[in-house]
Automatic annotation (TrEMBL):
<protein>
    <submittedName>
        <fullName>Uncharacterized protein</fullName>
    </submittedName>
</protein>
């Protein structure tokens, strides 16, 4: 008797359904992140009387940071005011990053990879919190990236 072979159609359909569910979940999480940033910005504008042009609009970096704060890989952004410092550094160099095609998501990935590199060099545990010394290393790493871009591609 021949053995009945499983059809791969079921697996393909299951995979497509999972991919569709993932995309739907991704859109929902992006929408929630946008709503969180909008609520945060509106509460900030109510608190402060001085409004600047950058605080009136939700920027890509705000959306990226709000999404990253819910992602476990970026757990260190929830410690202290490191997220604000990284955001400030991105805004200061935004034109340069835009010129070289570095999006806010790529910037966050670079920050995470730099911090992971520091942890690996110093034999730290995977979920060790970020400290000022670690922040300085990541900040220097970003500065070095900017310097190398300017050196490689010129101004």
């Amino acid at each position: 008797m021949p053995d009945e072979k499983k059809s791969s159609v079921e697996e393909v359909l299951k995979r497509e359904k999972l991919a569709k569910d993932f995309e739907k979940e991704k859109r929902v999480s992006e929408q929630k992140a946008i709503e969180q940033v909008a609520a945060k910005l509106s509460s900030q504008s109510q608190v402060s009387t001085e409004t600047s042009k950058s605080s009136k609009f939700i920027t890509n970096i705000d959306i990226a940071f709000s999404q990253a704060k819910t992602d476990l890989r970026f757990y260190f952004l929830n410690d202290g005011n490191y997220a604000d410092e990284f955001k400030r550094m991105f805004v200061e160099n935004e034109s340069l990053f835009k010129r070289y095609g570095i999006t806010s998501q790529k910037y966050l990935e670079y920050i995470r990879e730099s911090f992971d590199r520091y942890k690996k060099i110093h034999d730290m545990m995977p979920l060790d919190p970020m400290k000022p010394k670690h922040f300085k290393y990541v900040e220097d790493s970003i500065s070095e990236l900017i310097r190398m871009f300017n050196q490689r591609f010129g101004k």
